[in-house]
């Protein structure tokens, strides 16, 4: 494994989880991996699950409607609504589970992504604000940290094939 930084911290008082991860890739490429459906679908699901995006409109007010698909074909749908976008540096979205028709189930969580680059290393900081402590605790209980680590490893592999 590499020596790039990965941290996952939880603050129950503010109902937040903060993830920081460094990538050995240019910021523009890492940004694309988080904002283009054809790249997102290649890494965002922890194996053996896969991801499929039904539609994605990456603009303020736009939405991504996608599913995590189990090896048996079971689909877990989610909707992301983009709240703000500062190209290549930051975007915010509201994330919630949904039914197969795209109807969001509340409460959800707000995700704030920041991207910075230094000496060819891109740092991504993701702050997840949950509407309820119960949702944060359920997220952790469901193995979110481990699953997210697996997804980030997928992203590392994808970036290494695109950047060298």
From TrEMBL:
Gene3D superfamilies associated with the record: 3.30.530.20
InterPro entries: ASHA1/2-like_C (IPR013538), START-like_dom_sf (IPR023393)
Pfam families with a match to the protein in the record: AHSA1
Activator of Hsp90 ATPase homologue 1/2-like C-terminal domain segment(s): 24-159
Family per similarity comment: Belongs to the AHA1 family.
Protein known as: ATPase
Species whose genome carries this gene: Pedobacter quisquiliarum
């Amino acid at each position: 494994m590499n020596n790039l930084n990965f941290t996952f911290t939880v603050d129950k008082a503010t109902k937040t989880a903060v993830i920081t991860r460094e990538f050995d890739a240019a910021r523009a490429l890492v940004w694309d991996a988080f904002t283009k459906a054809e790249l997102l679908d290649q890494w965002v699901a922890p194996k053996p699950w896969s991801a499929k995006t039904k539609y994605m409109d990456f603009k303020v007010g736009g939405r991504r409607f996608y599913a995590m698909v189990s090896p048996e074909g079971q689909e877990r749908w989610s909707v992301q609504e983009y709240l703000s976008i500062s190209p290549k540096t930051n975007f915010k979205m509201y994330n919630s589970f949904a039914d197969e028709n795209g109807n969001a189930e509340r409460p959800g969580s707000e995700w704030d992504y920041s991207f910075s680059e230094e000496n060819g290393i891109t740092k991504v900081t993701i702050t997840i604000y949950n509407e309820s402590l119960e949702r944060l605790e359920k997220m952790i209980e469901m193995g979110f940290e481990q699953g997210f680590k697996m997804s980030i490893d997928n992203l590392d592999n994808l970036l290494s094939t695109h950047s060298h």
